[in-house]
DUF3307 domain-containing protein
Amino acid sequence: MIFFIKLLLAHLIGDFILQPTNWVIHKEENKVKSKYLYFHTLIHFLLIILLLWDLGSWKLALVISISHYVIDLVKLYASKWIKKKSVLFFTDQALHLIVIYICAFHGNLKEQTSIMFQHLDWVLITAVVFVTFPAAVMMGKLLEGFSDQIQIDHKSLPNAGKYIGIIERLFVLLFIIIGRWEVIGLLITAKSVFRFNDLKENNNRKLTEYILIGTLLSFGIAILTGYLFISMRGGL
């Protein structure tokens, strides 16, 4: 596993620390003709050799570096058809990680993958997945009758409320799992402080009640999920 961690560290340093913004811009503009594309590839090769501290691993470093070059090049040209940079970014990173994983465990890839899946905490994964989008959809249905009566006269980020709810439920679930129930109170207080100015400016009783119901429902779902998780793990 430490071998995989070193390869991952080399990737993180090469992609996020030793790649200035002007290199990224130059690559986007010049693509295969960009000299920084090749500098970037070389840096990854040298980082792998350095962190593994083994010149005998040059073949592995070469394979990963060349694959990195190919993936980055495909991403640069794919930007013509895929306008969302976030999609390109996460797809690019996922492909890099897959290559690193395969190279790290190429000797026993099937066995290592099987062991990894066997040790996954499926109860935890189910709880985490539930408090994200499934819980958001459930809350939307439960609050549907109230949301139709709310008039919001100020601009807001698209789906901001949904993502705020997802993040806060993940935090609540985490605090319950690690046994820090008191932090949930601080989280509710922090959210109330941030919401105070909006409610004060709008002076809208219906909006205040809607936000209060939504907040309590969101926290309630997360707390119930955390309680069920602990119960299933035999912690209660």
Observations:
- The two ends are 33 Å apart (CA to CA).
- The chain has two domains: 2-118, 122-232.
